[in-house]
Write a structure and sequence with these properties.
alpha/beta; Alpha-Beta Plaits; 5-stranded antiparallel β-sheet; single chain; TIM Barrel
């Protein structure tokens, strides 16, 4: 039942209640008014009749002795004693002097009594020239007159009822219209607040959830879509530099560009803060790439605030339905995971990949299985490194794999971060070192003297017990320290440089070689690097693999080789995939080559066989 109907019913109900109360009061008033009028009339008649008795005092009957009026004559002594002189109607014989005396209390000359069980009006008048008084009574005529008054009241009540009910209905309709209008305005405002962002006027997170659920519910074969989450990079710097008010202005202008620049296949939402979402009714990689290009082009023009040109760029993550997930919450979560990974990697865009998601069901399951896996499921593959001057395989890099009984070989990118986040990295690294030393011992028995390079993480460098644990394993497997090399990345050195340096010096004192991996991608200074007891620099594959097509990469590789040699370090180039790159590195004076051009990483047994037939035999 709507508000207007309820109000009308309420107002009419109140009107009817008022009419009932009014009717009861009116009825009572009608009776009271009728009694008063009739008493006054009866008193006038009584006075007339009293005069008549004075003219003919000796008559035995009265004109009042009929079916309408009854009368009697009495006298009252000085002390108030009542004496009945004459009764003209037998109905009055029950009246005693005492009852008549009670009627005359307070010097009343008219009133109402009950006579023979009926309501009876009486009036009293003095008979002129006499000490006697006349009492006049009347019943039937009063009833008819009172009924007349009641019939008038009923007629008026009917008219009043129509008027009051009409007014109540009209008032109810008018008031309800205003109330409904106000409620509609408030409801619309609440709905807007619940579904739209107040600052940018864009649909909000709630609207996005609703839209996603609606599209997911559509039973169509071509209902594929992609959700993209965008985060403005360095937005906090904008707020801190020019104030939150200007930060809000920037968000409003950014929202305006999104609305005017994006295609009809997109819908833009604000999730909160500096985070936006785009619902894109496509999931083809080519279409998504075009959309990303459009966004980058849209943001290429700086925003001007407070006279400052602010260049804006974003990190974008995406997830697609139904490929990545089948519900709205998971899709948004996955897109956000991809966006944060893009921000971490300083990339503009990344699509969702389970390996980036620390909270995926698969990753959580693998994390719970990792500790037990270290006993017998961790295996090492070995990628050979060739000395370019000797054309000999002098060393290999140990690359860890997880041989899972259900998922098969799991690459390190899928579980190394798990080990770091769960506090198992030191345990995993020691297991890798142990397997590598066991293999070194086995190759030594076969007459192969090959150095094994093992990667250390930042967590390992912060472990003061690492040198002692390494020494214990060297003793256990009787491995010459010259056959072990540890590779570390530049970034891993910068978390706690002094503690990392202390660990590296301890390893160096054990005559274990140290190498800086992925050189050129970190942010360490040369003044810090020269303090490290390292003997080798590895040029990152990102510079090597495309160097034949990119002059900048050529310059970086050449400069790094020269720098390393000037620092008395040897140089390893990883990521070699073709003969031209290999030959050019020899021309540049690179010391060691590593990459698919030589060999992919191989299990120990296969690598042993490879060494027998390779163009780079063991030294």
């Amino acid at each position: 039942m709507n508000v207007r109907r309820r109000l009308v019913i309420a107002f009419v109900s109140v009107a009817i209640l008022v009419l009932l109360l009014y009717g009861m009061v009116a009825h009572r008033t009608a009776i009271d008014v009728g009694d008063t009028e009739q008493l006054h009339l009866l008193y006038d008649i009584a006075k007339v009749e009293a005069k008549t008795h004075s003219v003919k005092p000796d008559r035995d009957t009265s004109t009042l002795t009929n079916h309408e009026f009854s009368s009697l004559i009495f006298s009252q002594s000085a002390d108030g004693e009542i004496k009945i002189e004459k009764i003209y109607d037998s109905n009055l014989e029950q009246l005693s002097p005492t009852k008549i005396s009670a009627m005359l209390i307070n010097n009343k000359n008219r009133g109402i009594i009950s006579l023979n069980g009926e309501k009876t009006l009486w009036a009293m008048a003095h008979i002129p020239s006499s000490e006697e008084l006349l009492l006049l009574f009347y019943q039937e005529h009063h009833q008819r007159t009172s009924a007349g008054y009641e019939s008038q009241i009923v007629a008026r009540l009917i008219i009043t009822a129509f008027v009051i009910i009409w007014i109540a209905t009209w008032v109810a309709l008018v008031i309800s219209k205003r109330i409904v209008h106000r409620l509609d305005e408030q409801s619309s405002a609440l709905i807007y607040q619940a579904t739209y962002d107040e600052l940018t006027s864009l649909p909000n997170r709630s609207s996005l959830f609703k839209a996603l659920n609606e599209h997911i519910a559509l039973d169509k074969t071509d209902n594929d879509f992609t959700i993209l989450v965008l985060d403005v990079n360095r937005f906090k710097e904008v707020n801190d530099t020019i104030g939150h008010d200007n930060g809000d202005k920037l968000l409003k202008r950014l929202a305006g560009r999104f609305v005017t620049s994006l295609t009809s296949k997109t819908r833009i939402y604000r999730l909160g803060g500096d985070e936006f979402a785009i619902l894109f009714f496509e999931q083809r990689p080519s279409a998504i790439k075009r959309l990303i290009r459009d966004i980058v082009h849209m943001l290429s023009k700086p925003f001007t605030l407070e006279g400052i040109d602010l260049p804006i760029d974003v990190s974008i993550g995406s997830a697609s339905f139904p490929r990545d997930a089948h519900d709205a919450s998971s899709l948004i979560k996955m897109a956000e995971v991809a966006m944060y990974q893009a921000k971490t990697q300083h990339a503009t865009f990344l699509a969702y990949d389970e390996k980036y998601d620390p909270y995926s069901i698969k990753r959580l399951t693998l994390m719970s299985e990792l500790r037990n896996a270290m006993k017998d499921q961790i295996v090492l593959f070995y990628q050979p490194k060739a000395d370019l001057a000797k054309l000999k395989t002098t060393s290999v890099e140990a690359l860890v794999r997880w041989l899972h009984p259900e998922h098969g070989l799991i690459p390190p990118d899928d579980f190394i971060s798990m080990a770091e986040n769960s506090g198992m990295m030191n345990e995993l690294t020691l297991r890798i070192i142990e397997i590598a030393m066991a293999q070194s011992h086995e190759w030594h028995k076969q007459g192969l003297s090959i150095q094994i390079a093992i990667n250390l993480s930042v967590i390992n460098l912060l472990d003061k017990n690492l040198p002692q644990q390494v020494q214990s394993l060297l003793n256990t497997y009787q491995v010459d320290t010259k056959l072990i090399k540890f590779e570390i990345t530049e970034n891993s050195l910068m978390l706690n440089p002094e503690l990392a340096l202390s660990t590296l010096k301890a390893l160096d004192e054990m005559n274990i070689s140290l190498s800086i991996d992925d050189f050129g991608t970190g942010y360490s200074s040369l003044s810090y690097l020269k303090r490290l007891p390292v003997s080798e620099l590895k040029i990152d594959r990102s510079f090597v693999k495309d160097m034949m097509n990119d002059e900048d990469d050529k310059v970086i590789v050449k400069s790094t080789i020269e720098l390393a040699h000037n620092m008395n370090c040897s140089v390893v180039a990883e990521g070699i995939e073709d003969q031209w790159t290999y030959d050019y590195l020899i021309e540049l004076g690179c010391d060691t080559a590593q990459g698919y051009y030589l060999s992919r990483p191989l299990p120990a047994e296969q690598l042993t066989q490879w060494l027998k037939v390779s163009r780079w035999p063991p030294a």
